Amino acid sequence: MIALLIANSLALASLLIMLASGLALIYGLRDVINFGHGAIYMLGAYLGYTVALVGGFWLALIVVPVLLALLGIAFEYLALRPLQNRSHIEVALVTLGLGIILGQIIIYFYGGVARSVDAPQILSGSVTVLNLSYPVYRIFLIVMGLGSCALLALWLRFTPSGLYVRAVSQDPSVARMMGINADRLSLLVTSLSAAFAGVAGVLAGPYLSIDPGMDVTMIVDCLIIVVIGGTGSIGGAIVAALLFGLVQVAGSVFLPNIASLVPYILLMVVLLIAPRGIGRGRVLN
Amino acid sequence: MNNRTTTAASARPAAIGALGGLSLRVPLAIAAVAIVFVVGAVVPTRIAGDFALRLANEGLLLGMLALSVAFLMSQAGLVALGAASIYGGTGLLFAIAVGEWNLTPTMAMCVSILIIAVYATVLGALIVRTNPLAFMMLTLAAGEMISHAVLLEGLRDYTGGADGLVVRFKGSIFGMESADFADPARFWLMVWVAAWLAGLALWAIGRSRLGAVLRAVRENEERMRFSGFNTYLPRLIAYVLVNIVAAVAGLLHVLNAGFVSPESLGLSVSTNALVAALMGGIAGSVGPILGGLIFSFAQDEFGARGLTQLLTGIAIVLFIVVFPRGVVGGLWGAMRTRVLNGRREIS
Q1: Do B188 and B127 contact (CB within 8 A), yes or no?
Q2: Which residue of B has its CA nearest to A263?
Q3: ipTM of the complex
Q4: Given the DSSP bridges, would you call strands A126-129 and A132-135 parallel, antiparallel or unpaired?
Q5: CATH class of the region B48-346
Q6: Yes or no, beta carbons of B317 and A94 under 8 Å apart
Q7: Collapsing DSSP states into helix, strand and coil, what is residue A280?
Q8: How far apart, in whole angstroms, are the C-alpha atoms of residue A86 and residue B311?
Q9: CA A221 to CA A244: how far, in whole Å?
Q10: What is the mean pLDDT of the segment spanning A33-56?
């Protein structure tokens, strides 16, 4: 029972980690929260649905992130860079508007009905671990989530570009003085974050349903996570995503009547105790 | 409108000569505003049909909501994305208060606005101390929380769930029966007066000490704190005040429509209000209200093809990137440069 609960919350948290850490990365570099992130995730899910119909799930898992990375590059060149002298609130509102536009375009092409994607043969069915039967796909989800989480941490810790990202996040002006090209980093981070959203979208297909409201649901969940984690802290976002997953899954088991409110109650409690969130507010420092 | 003329007059003594000095200019402005008020109250009900009046009523209500969003944006630098939860929430509370608790309409009105004010105070106490970006995220989250709460199975008997609630009340509010609220012409008069009161109240607050403190905190919160100002309380007061304006708009809406739907608490109502505010221009009171009217008629023109949401998104981007001052702000700026240029040519 407890093991199932933890496994389920890890599966949900895996998706949320991929999305929330993308948000936190962009925030670290540009001081902007991308309110369109939910729409990018939704695009990932719908593109994943289409590509999976044509070439199968595995192809979708490779093609969609690449396509969305290109979208991220476009987003960087067409929105973030031209607007970098505007106030952060204005840029955040622009991303909100762009997210609405993207969401409506997706609905225009795919219609308002929910879609579903089948997991590939190897990942369907369930395995028995310690006398507990558990769906293979969720295990795959957990492996992907924790794996990408580990990759992200390794990248930030041990590569030069990861070091630069941490430096800019900590102090943009000093980092620029030391000769770090923040624009180039931002391009990398924006495309990476969009690609992660694409992976999350494709992975969400067989796990959650693909429907027109998924962008709002996901962006609200991610915003809660980012606030709980301390805006811009990737470590905080990861911990907050795990906490969020646990609370939501436990809520649907123990408090089914008010399950949809449980994440908000968590948010309010965290705000009451620690208004700045549980993280230290900057990328992995 | 009034706002800008008087500040322009006091800031630019040279500009006064044209209209005969400060002593004459203020009464003239007041007279002009009074004429606009009376003409606006009477003329539409005479010349416009029921359908256009209904659109205009919706527009003014959205304008009041936009006003609440714009005031917080321009004075405090905070963007609230949860306006709909206040707007729809008040209507829902009113419906519950008359339907379930059997209160008289006036009592129900007071109770619903009071509950919303308490909610706004508690929520504001938690969220106005965060930075503006977090505030934006938190208002979005709080709005979604309320719209989820309304749809809870356990509250279905109260809120009507996804079906919404029909509002029937007997008796009167300020001498108005429920039929009066449903009549577009009579309702226009009410909502016109309410919009003016809200606009004037927020305009006056913006020019008061509270407004000055809010703008100073918006520019640099740390400096104000060092200077010994309380930076928390003014923002909380402003947050509660604008929510009361939004609550009044929501209440009028439900009195007029006789029905609350869960969609009136949805995110799209909040973004509509944001777009209306950006369209009209967030500075001052005229812009947002006019923006609401423009939005309402534009929605009627284009919304039938299911394009409302798409156009909302486009409008947000367009007005922030290209026309950050909105229609009213932009026209006002253009007019003033022309007047100033004209004067330079003369001298």
Answers
A1: no
A2: B145
A3: 0.85
A4: antiparallel
A5: mainly alpha
A6: yes
A7: coil
A8: 23
A9: 8
A10: 92
- Report the distance separating Cα B296 and Cα A102, nearest Å: 23
- Contact (Cβ atoms closer than 8 angstroms) between residue A266 and residue A240: no
Q: Give yes or no for A111 touching B (CB within 8 A).
A: no
Prediction pTM value: 0.86
A260 interaction partners in chain B (CB closer than 8 Å): 148-149, 151-152
Residues sharing a CB contact under 8 Å with residue B192, sequence separation 6 or more, in sequence order: B40, B41, B60
Choose, out of B271, B320, B322, B323, the residue to mutate when testing the contact with A (most A CBs < 10 Å): B320
Cα–Cα distances in angstroms (integers) from residue A275 to residues A173, A196, B109, B126, in the given order: 26, 28, 34, 8
The residue whose two tokens read 């007071």 is B110
CA quadruple B59, B84, B329, A83: dihedral positive or negative?
negative
The rounded average pLDDT for each run of 10 residues, N- to C-terminus, in chain B (347 residues) is 42 47 77 86 80 90 94 92 91 89 87 94 90 87 89 79 79 75 85 93 93 92 89 93 94 89 87 91 88 90 78 90 83 78 60
B271, A105: Cβ pair inside 8 Å? no
State CA B83 to chain mean position distance.
9
Distance of CA A109 to the CA centre of its chain: 24
- At B231, the amino acid letter reads T
User: Would you state the structure tokens that stand for residue A173, as one six-digit string?
Assistant: 């002006």
Domain locations in chain B as residue ranges: 48-346
